[in-house]
Design brief:
This protein has 414 residues and is α/β, with parallel strands linked by helices. The strands form 3 sheets. Strands 1, 2, 8, 9, 10, 11, 17 and 18 form an 8-stranded mixed β-sheet that branches. Helix 2 links the parallel strand 1 and strand 2. Helix 2 packs parallel to helix 7, helix 2 crosses helix 10 and helix 3 packs across helix 10. The longest helix is centred in the first third of the chain and has 17 residues. Bound molecules: flavin-adenine dinucleotide. Flavin-adenine dinucleotide binds next to helix 2, strand 12 and strand 16. Flavin-adenine dinucleotide (FAD) binds next to helix 2, strand 12 and strand 16.
Amino acid sequence: MKHYSAFAVAREALRYHTGWERAWRSPEPKKRYDVIIIGAGGHGLATAYYLGKNYGIQNVAVIEKGWLGGGNTGRNTTIIRSNYLQDPSAAIYEKARGLYEDLSQDLNYNIMFSPRGVIMLAQTQHEIRGYQRTAHANALQGVKTEWIGPERVKELVPIINLDGPRYPVLGGLWQERGGTARHDAVAWGYARACSAMGMDIIQQCEVTGVRSQDGRVVGVDTTKGAIDCDKLGIVVAGHSGQLAEMAGFRLPLEAVALQALVSEPIKPCMDVVVMANTVHGYMSQSDKGEMVIGGGTDGFNNFTQRGSFHHIEETVRALVETFPMISRLKMLRQWGGIVDMTGDRSPILSKTPLGGCFINCGWGTGGFKAIPGSGWGMAQLMATGHSPLTEAFSLDRFKEGRFIDESVAAGVAH
Ligand SMILES: Cc1cc2nc3c(=O)[nH]c(=O)nc-3n(C[C@H](O)[C@H](O)[C@H](O)COP(=O)(O)OP(=O)(O)OC[C@H]3O[C@@H](n4cnc5c(N)ncnc54)[C@H](O)[C@@H]3O)c2cc1C
């Protein structure tokens, strides 16, 4: 793999950009791999990358039914933060946030990490108590967040309306090193690095069955034929229930559509990410100038990558009261993704009842921010059978009642 650098950009500019290599290969599948990962979203690709980088396991295939990054990874609003309440969550999200800080250097690919800061607005007394509690918990966990009053919110976001018609802004939970990154670039950067290690990323190839023998996984059936493996990672977000069924177990998950929209590009007007969870909308400004707006999940299970129309109205109404200037903006695009929600709003990173088969899912509305930490922990779990980062997120917790309740941090917020 040729190194990307300022020198390479200058060299290619001089020869009309004829010397760039394809960022990753598109091979036909081999008969057998040590590890197969199903799903070339951020979590699947990051798992493959850290298997290779941290454990030297490079005979790996990542199998994707569509195009890489075309699932939720390429559809999300890219908020990165780690101010969760419970210790295991803070640990994995903070690990991820820390890895994001120099992921561009690690992957030699500009993922455009922008630690511009994230505010979660408190608009009710209940939210003030919830966020102050989170700020105290984060202080004990070594995660840098702080509670700020309404004047500081106004300083950080001059376009905000503190005296909304329904709910005033009473303060907020502020994480200064939270922010955003370019979602496609995260998937592309990991894919390029995996391909450079000799791993095969096989796109347009759907897994249609999981094969097992004596209680252990031995391979998968795909639209490009059967492929054998020693270990299997299922990392397919909203389609986890279907893959689990193929592997012979059930998951405590619901699949629902979550949607987002972007406006026409405008001049820079907001340089932090703001989430207003009571009125239910959140917004940031992309580098192109578009206002990136996220809403809520549909209240019923579905697989439409669109979402229902009334949510657009609700979300825009919420944001117009919080940022009146957006009432004059035209909206350009709207889309949805299928998110996988657990009852305690925490993910599942776990061994499964099928030997050699592992699952990573349940990130719901908030897994983009976790990609590097999740990949790191999942690779450790798959390579060694144990990871301190993933231990609390095992499937057993639902049988044993060890819930990791993140309904304040992740029930609505992303
Ligand atoms: C509108 C929206 C906004 C969001 N905003 C945020 C946010 O601001 N911050 C945040 O942290 N998170 C956010 N999220 C959540 C985040 O996008 C997801 O948690 C994360 O991207 C999940 O990544 P993944 O790799 O697990 O799944 P995906 O990116 O969905 O990848 C799974 C892949 O598996 C493939 N697949 C499925 N079935 C098969 C099969 N049978 N065979 C082969 N391949 C298969 C799919 O095609 C897909 O590419 C948002 C999500 C949405 C939809």
